[in-house]
Design a protein that fits this description.
The protein is mainly beta. The chain is built from one helix and eleven strands; from the N terminus they run ββββββββββαβ.
């Protein structure tokens, strides 16, 4: 018998975590206009097929300072809403969002000028969540 996944409702911002990477309780923007999710990454370094990086920046609550490394990454070109392109690294991370935990793709970007250090796009939301724009996370993102 066919069984549907339960679809949870989330708001325009949500408090998320990357538990495997020791990053907890960071407010993310839910963006149904973006296809791919993006996370602020610092200290990016690619050497001999290994990508190392830190999630977030010391200015963001939830920053662990943990240096992550992976051989499982891709180089991609991302286009913004103005049609400008940017080369980024894409990695898979385990995300806790809206009571669910799952692995999804994130591009690593400098989001220092953005209000939210994490953006969750349609690819991560599809068949998992619906977005109620009248709702938002109880605690908004704050810099230290």
């Amino acid at each position: 018998m066919f069984r549907r996944n339960k679809i949870n409702t989330i708001g325009r911002t949500e408090v998320i975590s990357f538990p495997e990477d020791e990053v907890y309780k960071v407010t993310a923007k839910i963006d149904t206009g973006a296809y791919t999710s993006s996370v602020w990454a610092t200290d990016l370094n690619e050497v001999d097929g290994v990508l190392s990086f830190k999630l977030l920046d010391s200015k963001v609550k939830g920053f662990s300072g943990k240096l992550l490394s992976t051989k499982n990454y891709h180089k991609v070109v991302v286009y913004n809403s103005f049609g400008h392109s940017e080369k980024r690294f894409r990695v898979q991370l385990v995300l806790n969002l809206g009571g669910s935990s799952f692995k999804t793709d994130f591009t690593l970007a400098d989001r220092s000028l953005n209000t939210y250090p994490i953006l969750i796009g349609r690819k991560a939301l599809k068949n998992r969540f619906v977005v109620d724009v009248s709702k938002s996370a109880a605690r908004e993102h704050k810099r230290k």
